[in-house]
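*** Residues and shapes ***
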Amino acid sequence: MFRNHFISHSNSEGHRTYLLIFKRDCVDRYHPELHLLDSRIKLTLPPPFQEDDFYLNILGKTSVSGVFGIGTKNVRGGSNKVKYVLWNPAIEEFVVIPPSPDELVPKHPRLGVFHDFHGFGYDQVRDDFKILHMDDMAQWCVGNPFNGEELYMNGACHWLVKGKHDQIFMMSFDMSHEVFFTTPIDERSDLDDGYLTGLNGSIAFITNHDKNNIFHISILGELGVKESWIKLFIYGPMPSIDWPPIGFGKKGYIFFRKIDDELAYVDLSTQIIEELGIKGEDYCCYTGLYQESLLSIGGSSN
């Protein structure tokens, strides 16, 4: 009963599903493209991102008040330099994020120092956007932010992390109060077998049970409370689906890449797989939510 009510009451009105896809040309250069799947409209990336052969990341898998936090780094070469902008595609406005003070300090060329940002969100108290960079992660194992593994929802950034004794947690950072907290996950799973996503406004955790493409889908009732995870679905086996998912969309759709490279989504209300008619390579396509806004980025306090 609860499962049917949860799936049938979507809170994604006004949202659109985007597809970020990297297309490779005949000389193996990558060209990122951003599409709105509902209208099949291709968005023109802002000038800092109109070059070829770079990797693009949308922080948090979603827009925030109509604004994307996006980053890029070179596909080839040993450079660790990254570039980030805030971008509102509806009004074609973008703001380049300046380098942090730490980036301006010269480093020995042999040191593998990375300046990737790990989250993007909105501070409701200060009426401001925030970009999050974590330097010291000695206690936790966190995935590469350019793999699209972080999630922004309900005013906080969330990641799957591995702590002591290989225990899996969800780590969260409240953007308004600037505090970290963790939520244990009651699943025996490796980071590679778990996926954090959004589902109808709730945080969802998906596991590839025993690596046999039987997916267990749970939603979180309360941050920080292990017992509030509610298992909604056990779905599968789906032998034609490649793991992990490539993202989520409106109406509770979860998107995957099939083993023949066709992109598809699962409608959890019907448990039917629908193809998009688009092909995508491994780790070269991601989906998420976009909500249009005509508010200028400068409309916030900073």
Notes: The chain is about 0% helix and 45% strand. The two ends are 45 Å apart (CA to CA). Residues 2-8 form the longest helix (7 residues).
